[in-house]
Amino acid sequence: MQLTPRQKRALESICETFLPETDGWPSAVQLGVPDALAEALEFNPRTQDRARFLNLLDVWDSKLHAFLLAGEYGNFSALKAEVREKILRSWADSSLRKRRAAFQALRKAIGFLYVMLPEYRGAANPVWKKIGYPGPLGAKAQGARPLRVTTPEKEITASCDVCVIGSGAGGGVAAAVLAAAGKDVVVLEAGNYYDDADFDGAELGGFQRLYSEGGFAATEDHSVGFLAGECLGGGTVVNYCTSFRTPDDIRTEWAEAGVRWIAGAE
Q: Could you give the CA distance from residue 113 to residue 34 in angstroms, rounded to a whole number?
C-alpha cells in the first residue's frame, strides 16, 4: 500500500517508538518494518479497515494530537522518545475501545514483523542471532504434486452432487466421506495449494501464503488474534497444537460442567 510522506513519517515514528535501536539491537525502522507493515495491509480484505488505518496515520503526526495527549505542541515524529512513549501508553490505556484496538494492532504487527523479516542490509535478520534462531531450513527439491487442482482465472460453471466450501478439517473429511459414497464432489478453497516443496520454514512467507489476512486476522478490538488457515487443507496445514489430545484432568472438568461426551473413549 502506497503511503503519503506524512503517513510514512507517522508510521516510521510509531515503529521507532515501539522498537528503537538499543544495545546492539536494530530498530524497527532499520529493519524495514514500516514498509513491510504497509505491504501487509494489502492482506486485509476490508477496505474500511485499510481506510481507517490511513486516517489514523494522517492524524497521528499532527501537533494537535500530541498536545491533547501529552501537553506537547509538536509533531509526534519530532518529539523526544519519552513523550512519544507517553502518547502510545495513553492509547493503550484509553477508555475508548477503538484507541485500545489501534494500539494492539500496531503493537502486534510491528513486533511480529520485527522478528519475521528475513533480511537486513543483504544479510540475515540480526534479531534471529540475538534470540538464538538459526534461520529457516530452506526449500526442498520440487517433486510431482500429489493433487491436481483447478484455479479458475475467470467465472466458470461447474456441476456436481455436493459442493463443499472449505478444505480444512471439516470440509476435507466431509468431501472424503461423500466421495467414498459415490457422490460427485467439488471442494472450494479461498487459498492456494502448497505441498512439501513449498514449505521452506520462512515464517513471514508462511504467514503471507497460508493464513487468512496474512496472519493478522483478529477480533474487532484486536484483543484476540485468529490464526485461521487460508490454503488447501486449511487448519490441518497450519495446525498449532489442535491435534494434541486434551489432558484428562481438563476433560474431566469439562464433563463435570455438563459436556459429558468429552470424557468418552473418542
A: 9
pLDDT at residue 243 is higher than 90: no
User: What is the number of domains present in the chain?
Assistant: 1
* pLDDT (tens digit per residue) in 47-69: 888 888 999 999 999 999 989 88
pLDDT in tens, 195-232: 888 888 888 889 889 998 888 888 877 778 888 889 99
Domain-embedded: residue 232 = no
188 bridge partner residues:
165
Q: Is the pLDDT of residue 1 over 80?
A: no
Q: Which domain holds residue 118?
A: 5-131
Residue 30 lies in a domain: yes
Instruction: Find residue 42's DSSP bridge partners.
Output: none
Three-state secondary structure readout of the chain: CCCCHHHHHHHHHHHHHHCCCECCECCHHHHCHHHHHHHHHHHCCCHHHHHHHHHHHHHHCCHHHHHHHHCCCCCHHHCCHHHHHHHHHHHHCCCCHHHHHHHHHHHHHHHHHHHHCCEECCEECHHHHHHCCCCCCCCCCCCCCCCCCCCCCCCCCCCCCEEEECCCHHHHHHHHHHHHCCCCEEEECCCECCCHHHCCCCHHHHHHHHEHHHHCCECCCCCCECCCECECCHHHCCCCCCCCCCCHHHHHHHHHCCCHHHHCCC
pLDDT band (50, 70, 90) for residue 86 = very high
What span, in angstroms and rounded, lies between the C-alpha atoms of 35 and 42?
Answer: 12
Compute the distance between CA of residue 15 and CA of residue 155 in angstroms, rounded to an integer: 42
pTM: 0.78
